[in-house]
Design goal:
Blueprint lengths: L1 H14 L12 E5 L2 E4 H10 L7 H23 L6 H24 L7 H10 L8 E11 L7 H7 L3 H11 L3 E9 L5 H7 L7 E5 L3 E12 L4 H30 L14
Antiparallel strand pairs: 1-2, 3-4, 3-6, 5-6
C-alpha cells in the first residue's frame, strides 16, 4: 500500500501527459482487493477539493482517502447495505443532482462571459464594493431568538446603544454573549449592504434568524479601496455569477412551462 501511495504521482503524470490520450482518465492508480482506483476518480476529488492536479501532497491525501473509502464500500456491500431503502433513495437523490448539474454545466458553458464594458460599468456603479470599499469594526451582543421572552420590535425601536440592549436583556433575565467582528462591504450580501452602507459610528444593526439575534454596534469605519486588478476580477466573477443565475432561472421557467407538474401532497403545495 505504501508503495502504491508513494509512486502514484508517476501514474498521475502519465494520466495527464496529454489531451490526445483517450485513456488518461482510466489510468489505474491503486487497487483495493481487486477494485481499481483511477486517475479520473482522483482528478474528480482534486477538483471537488479545489486543489491543483500538480499538488502532490493534496493528491496523496485524497488518494489515501479514496482507498479508505473503497474499503468501507466493500464492507457495506458484504452486508447488502446497498439494498436498504435509505441507501437506494440516497443514491437516486445523488444521481438526480449529478444529472441536473451536468445539464446546467453543459448549458452554462455556452454563455458569453462579461465584457470589459460591463465590468467597468459594474465597478463604477458599485463604489461601496470597490473605490469606496469600507471596513466596519463591530462590538456584538448575541442571544437566542425567544419571542415569548422579548419584544424584539420594541427593543430595536428603543435601544440607542449596545448598553441599552444589554440592560434590557438583563432585566428579562435573558442570557447573552459578547464579542467582536468586522464587515467588509465587498463581501456583504445586498440586503445587509443596503442596511449598513449609510450607517455611522455608534449605530446599531440588528440581524436575526429563527435561532439567534445578533446586535452589532459600529465601533469604527475605515475606507480601504480595492486595487484596480482585484476590482476587475471580483466584478467579472460577480457578473458571470449573475448571468448564470439568470440563465438557470429562465431555463427552469422554460422547462416548467413545457411540463405537467402536480404536487400530490396538499400540505406541500404552494398557497
Amino acid at each position: 500500500m505504501k508503495k502504491i501511495i508513494t509512486n502514484f504521482c508517476l501514474l498521475m503524470l502519465a494520466s495527464c501527459s496529454g489531451q490526445n490520450n483517450p485513456n488518461h482518465g482510466s489510468q489505474v492508480l491503486a487497487t483495493v482487493n481487486g477494485d481499481e482506483v483511477t486517475a479520473f476518480a482522483l482528478q474528480s476529488e482534486l477538483k471537488g477539493a479545489q486543489q491543483h492536479e500538480n499538488d502532490q501532497d493534496a493528491a496523496r491525501k485524497l488518494l489515501a482517502g479514496l482507498i479508505d473509502r473503497q474499503l468501507l464500500v466493500q464492507e457495506a456491500i458484504k452486508l447488502d447495505l446497498e439494498r436498504t431503502p435509505e441507501v437506494v433513495q440516497a443514491v437516486e437523490s445523488a444521481k438526480a443532482k449529478i444529472y441536473a448539474q451536468a445539464y446546467l454545466s453543459k448549458k452554462l458553458a455556452k454563455i458569453a462571459t462579461a465584457s470589459e464594458s460591463d465590468i467597468n460599468t459594474y465597478i463604477d456603479s458599485h463604489p461601496e464594493k470597490f473605490r469606496h470599499r469600507k471596513v466596519f469594526k463591530m462590538q456584538d451582543v448575541v442571544f437566542s431568538n425567544d419571542v415569548a421572552s422579548l419584544d424584539l420590535a420594541s427593543l430595536e425601536k428603543d435601544a440607542v446603544t449596545l448598553q441599552d440592549v444589554q440592560a434590557a436583556l438583563d432585566t428579562k433575565g435573558i442570557h447573552y454573549e459578547t464579542g467582536a467582528s468586522q464587515f467588509v462591504t465587498d463581501r456583504l450580501p445586498e440586503p445587509v449592504l443596503s442596511k449598513i452602507k449609510s450607517m455611522k459610528k455608534g449605530d446599531l444593526l440588528f440581524l436575526h434568524n429563527h435561532n439567534n439575534i445578533i446586535v452589532k454596534s459600529i465601533d469604527d469605519i475605515t475606507e480601504q479601496p480595492m486595487s484596480a486588478e482585484h476590482a476587475h476580477l471580483l466584478a467579472e466573477r460577480l457578473l458571470n455569477q449573475q448571468k448564470q443565475q439568470a440563465f438557470i432561472a429562465k431555463e427552469v421557467a422554460r422547462l416548467k412551462a413545457l411540463s405537467s407538474i402536480e404536487v400530490v401532497d396538499a400540505k406541500l403545495n404552494k398557497q
